[in-house]
Specification:
The complex is a heterodimer. By secondary structure, chain A is an alpha/beta fold. Chain A is built from 14 helices and 14 strands. The chains are: A alpha/beta, B alpha/beta.
């Protein structure tokens, strides 16, 4: 079992056996198991069909079926015009995508990973994010930037950075970070339909993970609203706030802690900007304790922002202890497995931090 | 019927422009005088240097008096606009970097003369000329520069960020507009239109890596884009010779054909743009037709499936700016006053057009002086409008962050300041 777990973590594929232990959100109607990859694929397929202005461009998205196979089958179905392979020219093709959006198309611009978006970040921020404001609404930029974000397994420092904090810092952008397949599908459809630039942060390790999806989510008009968090698990002793892969870690930690009588409320942020601070405040006002969990670095991160917002709002007076941030270690990501495992939050780290926050350890 | 009467009737039958109709009401004597002018003349222009092209733009062009006067009027208005901007900047009514277009007027006017209303254009920050030629009013432009509510971007953009329908701005990041411009072209091709994108950039921007990336993709995908390089000899304070190895900007697209054009002569710019447009829009067939007279036929031809766009083309416009990079620039650091004076005397685009008009008996100095005076008056009127316009409402500070979005709360300067973005 240990060996297969090691293989699983290294490859990032077939994490079914490890993650099925998570408490899935079960809907009342019949559900179907869909991987995050397939959910993203469905979302793009449905939106491409629905609106002819939508098109996908990026490296390997067409004939290769996507570097991570997220766009599998789309080129075969929609052809060269709508699924475009680009040269390795992030700044150029991102600018081209933004320009196409300015002329009224609705591009989905894929970054093979968000690390490569740094080559193009000027186009994302200065050309996409700020233009609606600079033009007083005359020039809209309906574009989605998507791709895997954050750490993977064994990909080392230049492929492992989390960009949630960087992009969410900037007004004019919307930034979403799905966890489950339902999040992925609903948020991607919402992002594509949004008239504003949306940064859509996926996670490579989640692509192969199946989640139950409700009947409702199978509808072609199913969207998840941007800017609204989801309570994945009700609890009364502590609020755990997270996004993307670490929502799973929080739920796993919550399951272990429940056996010891600690009931965690787990909030899946879904959107980093706009952030649903009200949901966090409501929860903290109930549980009196806050722990944020993320894969990104601590300084100026998502957790830091949450703590600052809590201090500025009504929930501060309800805190029985200072808020705790669980984050990646403040170092470039190492390659060796033992070092990598110790660089990102594990389930045990969440459990430990909850206990410290509740003064149980 | 006397000869004079006949001339007047002929004149009326040709007087299609609104400007001339206005001058009829105001200057009866001038109307009778103008009846003696040549209405159409073939004028010789400089030959363009070409790259990867078998043909070049024509060196003899047919010019209508009305059109030439319109170009003159536009250039004079832009000239007056820039001078007014300079004055208002000194008074701190216009703040921040303001990049004047003085000396480069022929580029904007010549390009506009050869493209359609539905073609798209994008440029960097030296954008007032293009905002005007692409339909922005003087009032909106000056009000925007002055940061007023009545400005074209409601005071949010300032001198660098102006937009009109089919003029996609106004960008401060050197070279970023080149990728955007190719993206506009992608959308036009995607939609199977006959339109093209004119993407204006400078000699400085030509050294941006994203320009090379964009040109590769534009050529790969045969995007209908004219990369119009306004080579004014200086990238801010750095002369072309000090920062560029290959200064043949019209060849810098490698496999993309290019033209090098006299950017100080509006007729040369117009003809080159016409040539470049034909290249972009369809195969070589439409090149044989005068765009204005046979537009419907051109459109039909360009939709024929076997005639695809030839793709992008580069048009290097050799031009010069008479003022510094931006108002307040320490010009003396990088060029001499003598150099500027010499070019002003010998190559001013307005004087060059004046020369064409006078030499060919298409106007006289009196008429041109009247146009000049009118341009000054128009700009003054717009300037007064701008100065008297109110500033934007602070309550609306947070509007326009997003398009088509429900209202949201925005964090203010301190936790107690709760702002709202209501649109």
């Amino acid at each position: 079992m240990a060996l297969s777990v090691k293989c699983v973590l290294r490859s990032g594929r077939n994490t079914v056996s490890l993650l099925r232990r998570q408490a899935f959100h079960r809907s009342a109607t019949s559900a179907v198991q869909v991987t995050v990859r397939d959910a993203l694929n469905q979302a793009m397929d449905e939106e491409l069909e629905r609106d002819e202005r939508v098109f996908l461009l990026g490296e390997e998205v067409a004939q290769y079926d996507g570097a991570y196979k997220v766009s599998r089958g789309l080129w075969k179905k929609y052809g060269d015009k709508r699924i475009m392979d680009t040269p390795i020219s992030e700044m150029g093709f991102t600018g081209i995508a933004v320009g196409a959006a300015m002329a009224g198309l609705r591009p989905i611009c894929e970054f093979m990973t968000f690390n490569f978006s740094m080559q193009a970040i000027d186009q994302v921020i200065n050309s996409a994010a700020k233009t609606c404001y600079m033009s007083a609404g005359l020039q809209s930029v309906p574009i989605v930037f998507r791709g895997p974000n954050g750490s993977s397994a064994g990909v080392a420092a230049q492929h492992s950075q989390c960009f949630a904090a960087w992009y969410a810092h900037c007004p004019g952008l919307k930034v979403v970070s799905p966890w489950s397949s339902e999040d992925a599908k609903g948020l991607l459809k919402a992002a594509i339909r949004d008239d504003n630039p949306v940064v859509f942060l996926e996670n490579e390790l989640l692509y192969g993970v199946p989640f139950e999806m409700s009947d409702e989510s199978q509808s072609k008009d199913f969207t998840v609203p941007i800017g609204k968090a989801k309570i994945e698990r009700q609890g009364s002793h502590v609020t755990l706030v997270s996004h993307s892969r670490y929502v799973g870690h929080c739920l796993d930690a919550a399951a272990v802690l429940a056996k010891e009588g600690v009931e965690c409320e787990v909030i899946n942020l879904r959107s980093i900007r706009p952030m649903d601070v009200e949901s966090i405040e409501t929860s903290v006002m109930k549980t009196n304790h806050l722990v944020t969990v993320e894969g990104g670095w601590p300084q100026f991160g998502v957790g830091a922002e949450i703590c600052a917002r809590i201090m500025e709002g009504p929930a501060f007076n309800y805190l029985d202890s200072p808020a705790t941030r669980v984050t990646g270690v403040d170092i470039p990501m190492p390659y060796a497995k033992i070092l990598e495992d110790n660089s990102v939050p594990q389930i045990k780290d969440v459990i430990f931090s909850v206990k410290k926050t509740l003064n149980l350890a | 019927m006397t000869t004079d009467r006949l001339c007047v009737n002929m004149f009326f039958s040709h007087a299609s422009s609104k400007i001339l109709r206005t001058s009829i009401h105001r200057h009866g004597a001038a109307v009778l005088r103008s009846a003696n002018f040549t209405t159409k003349e073939t004028i010789d222009i400089k030959k363009c240097d070409v790259h990867l092209l078998d043909e070049a733009p024509a060196t003899s062009v047919l010019v209508a008096r009305e059109d030439a006067l319109q170009y003159y009027r536009s250039m004079q208005t832009m000239r007056s606009l820039a001078l007014k901007a300079r004055e208002l900047h000194k008074q701190n009514i216009i703040r921040g970097p303001c990049h004047l277009y003085t000396g480069q007027e022929a580029c904007a006017v010549g390009i506009e003369a050869a493209i359609t209303d539905t073609d798209r254009l994008i440029t960097a920050y030296r954008s007032h000329g293009f905002t005007f030629t692409r339909g922005g009013s003087l009032k909106e432009i000056i009000a925007e520069m002055a940061g007023r509510r009545t400005g074209i971007s409601k005071g949010r953009g300032g001198p660098m960020h102006m937009f009109t329908k089919n003029f996609h701005g106004g960008y401060a990041i050197v070279g970023s507009q080149v990728s955007l411009g190719a993206g506009l072209a992608l959308a036009l091709k995607y939609r199977n239109t006959d339109d093209l994108s004119v993407c204006v950039y400078g000699d400085g921007a030509a050294n941006q890596g994203q320009v090379a990336e964009t040109m590769n993709m534009a050529a790969l995908w045969k995007l209908p884009v004219i990369f119009a390089c306004e080579n004014n000899g200086y990238a801010k304070g750095t002369s072309v010779g000090r920062c560029t190895v290959n200064t043949d900007f019209y060849k810098r697209g490698d496999v993309i054909p290019g033209l090098r054009v006299d950017g100080m002569d509006v007729l040369s710019v117009r003809e080159a743009t016409r040539f470049a447009s034909d290249h972009c829009r369809s195969g070589k067939v439409s090149f044989l037709f005068n765009k204005m007279e046979h537009l419907s036929l051109c459109r039909f031809i360009s939709t024929c499936p076997f005639l695809v766009s030839q793709g992008p083309i580069i048009m290097e416009l050799q031009t010069y700016r008479f003022f510094g990079h931006a108002i307040g620039d320490t010009e003396h650091k990088y060029r001499t006053a003598d150099e500027v004076d010499k070019i002003r005397k010998e190559r001013d685009p307005i004087s060059l057009l004046e020369g064409h008009l006078i030499r060919n008996n298409m106007a006289n100095m009196e008429e041109l002086r009247e146009i000049n005076e009118k341009s000054v008056t128009d700009v003054e009127e717009a300037s007064q409008f701008a100065i008297q316009s109110p500033e934007p409402l602070v309550e609306e500070l947070c509007n326009y962050i997003y398009c088509n979005n429900p209202p949201l709360n925005i964090r203010g300067i301190n936790p107690w300041t709760k702002l709202k973005s209501s649109m």
